[in-house]
Amino acid sequence: MHELTHVWQHQNGFPVWFGGSLLALRLGYLKNRAYRLPMLDTVPHLNRLNMEQQAEIFALYYRAAICHDPAATPYLPQLQRLLQPFFANPKSRELWPKWL
Question: What keywords does the record list, in alphabetical order (predicted)?
Fold first, then answer.
């Protein structure tokens, strides 16, 4: 699911190569920092996360909602809140990370 999120980002015009390059320049891939999620209740919108964090959100949602992973299901309400704009309009550029 993580990599499929990058496919979705690319197909909807998000410059994945550029976003990845910016993360690399900021040393985001060092010790996997770019993938770490903040406390979900502190994130106001999906677009406040970088491209890797967004992909982690989709992967975690899949684990919780589809696979019923007991480690992921407690996060389901916050994941649904964050992904509601995606479910409403998956082609919206408002979903892109805001730091670009």
Answer: Membrane, Transmembrane, Transmembrane helix
Start-to-end CA span in the chain (Å): 23
Residue with tokens 């979903």: 95
**pLDDT tens-digit profile of 11-61?**
999 999 999 999 999 888 999 999 999 999 999 999 999 999 999 999 999
pTM for the full model? 0.93
Instruction: Kindly tell me the burial class for residue 40, based on how many C-beta atoms sit within 10 Å of its own C-beta (0-12, 13-18, 19 or more).
Output: middle
Whether 83 contacts 46, CB under 8 Å: yes
| Residue 28 pLDDT | 87
User: Are 61 and 5 within 8 A, CB to CB?
Assistant: no
On whether the CB atoms of residues 10 and 4 are closer than 8 A, the answer is no
Maximal CA-CA distance, the chain: 36
Q: Name which of 9, 1, 17 is nearest 47 in CA terms.
A: 9
